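To illustrate the input format used throughout this study, we show a single complete record. The first block contains the structure-token representation of the backbone; no residue identities are included at this stage. The design step must infer an amino acid for every position from geometry alone.
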């Protein structure tokens, strides 16, 4: 570290005290260590996970930004059993309760690594590691898998090592995620998989699909456009941020479950949806919007799911023609029309920031997906395809690895074009009824 030359005795004293904190606070005796305390504001820079599926034990090295103001750090831990918390081989004070872990962290201007050793359990309700071998932690169940913070704006980079994979099975997971992403993006799938490469994009990204016994026909039908779709995303919006190999991965969610979850670069698709090219295109789109650029608040869910729904239709039209595009939008319209006759929450973009429970308050439903898709289609029709693509590309490149709100995108559109989208955003996303055709209908 380089300091400017001091100009006074006061500056000399300040620098000596700062040096004492940098050196001395990292060498405290165990009796001098701070008590466990609550602080949800400590910035998580990186989380490194080593998970043993055989013993059901794991270790998380969590790198925190240094602080000279706080001696606390807090994490969600769900039903994890925390065995010890250390830093530089020193046992730190901690406490657990009500799904929370509080740690006492010595003062330091330098980044600090907490090593949290813990045990985890199988979950039965789409809230952690499932019995089928796949994980499902969206939206706020990461604490059942590793110490975390689930608010989407809290981004971290990750590494993951999976041990104890059963003989004959394959563990699919990202070894390293170097960009800040939401905690719910982290996950894995373990099963007996076959793999089919679908080709490389112009940028050299290998696109493929992993499927289980008896699924080959559906898997290849559903991913027949996936290489071209992924290439269209790369060429239209910019460089993909999560590696040079990507794939759709079949997972067993049981029963009539459908859809997918955006565990890039190996996103999960429910086995019953493997033949649907729209689901594959939708989950792939999250590599740019939802993961590559994450939402700032749960209320901005439409910026992730509505935009991904729109982009899935848009990409399939670009690579497979208008016929499939018409089919997708006809399906979307049916879902939109059914929403109006249901008791579902019909507001796609609620007011506020993290003031709702996305599950309990019903935001996770048709409204943000379908109202959002038609709103973005409206923007395309007003601005023109090329101009709208360019605005989305600029938005992605400016915010890659960051957390943003839908309002930030609307502001960019208003500043960079001669169209103010505020009125139609209000009509489409913040009203229960569909907008009038003469205003910004569909």
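Output of the design step:
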């Amino acid at each position: 570290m380089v300091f400017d030359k001091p100009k006074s005795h006061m500056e000399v004293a300040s620098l000596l005290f700062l040096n004492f904190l940098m050196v001395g606070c990292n060498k405290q005796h165990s009796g001098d260590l701070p008590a466990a305390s609550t602080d949800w504001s400590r910035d998580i820079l990186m989380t490194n996970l080593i998970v043993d599926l055989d013993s059901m034990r794991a270790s998380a090295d969590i790198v925190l930004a240094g602080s000279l103001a706080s001696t606390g750090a807090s994490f969600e831990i769900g039903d994890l059993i925390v065995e010890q918390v250390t830093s530089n081989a020193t046992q730190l004070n901690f406490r657990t309760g009500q799904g929370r872990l509080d740690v006492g962290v010595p003062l330091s201007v330098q980044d600090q690594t907490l090593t949290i050793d813990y045990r985890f359990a199988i979950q039965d309700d789409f809230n952690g590691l499932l019995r089928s071998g796949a994980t499902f932690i969206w939206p706020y169940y990461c604490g059942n898998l590793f110490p975390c913070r689930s608010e989407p704006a809290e981004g971290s980079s990750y590494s993951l090592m999976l041990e104890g994979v059963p003989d004959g099975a394959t563990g699919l997971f990202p070894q390293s995620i170097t960009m800040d992403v939401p905690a719910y993006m982290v996950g894995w799938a373990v099963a007996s998989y076959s793999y089919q490469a679908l080709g490389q994009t112009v940028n050299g990204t290998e696109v493929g699909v992993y499927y289980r016994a008896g699924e080959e026909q559906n898997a290849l039908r559903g991913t027949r456009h996936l290489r071209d779709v992924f290439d269209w995303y790369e060429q239209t919006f910019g460089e993909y941020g999560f590696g040079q190999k990507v794939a759709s991965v079949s997972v067993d969610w049981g029963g009539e479950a459908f859809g997918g979850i955006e565990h890039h670069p190996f996103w999960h698709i429910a086995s019953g949806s493997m033949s649907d090219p729209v689901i594959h295109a939708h989950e792939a789109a999250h590599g740019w919007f939802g993961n590559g650029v994450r939402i700032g608040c749960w209320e901005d869910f439409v910026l992730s799911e509505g935009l991904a729904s729109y982009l899935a239709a848009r990409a399939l039209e670009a690579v497979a023609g208008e016929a499939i595009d018409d089919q997708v939008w006809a399906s979307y319209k049916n879902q939109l029309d059914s929403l109006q006759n249901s008791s579902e929450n019909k507001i796609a973009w609620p007011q506020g920031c993290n003031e709702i429970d996305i599950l309990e308050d019903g935001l996770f439903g048709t409204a943000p997906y379908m109202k959002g898709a038609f709103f973005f289609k409206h923007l395309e029709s007003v601005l023109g395809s090329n101009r709208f693509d360019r605005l989305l590309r600029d938005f992605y490149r400016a915010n890659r690895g960051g957390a943003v709100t839908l309002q930030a995108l609307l502001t960019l559109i208003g500043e960079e074009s001669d169209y103010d989208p505020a009125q139609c955003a209000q009509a489409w996303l913040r009203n229960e009824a569909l907008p009038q055709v003469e205003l910004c209908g569909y």
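Structural context for interpreting the output: DSSP finds eleven helices and 21 strands in the chain. The mean pLDDT is 92.
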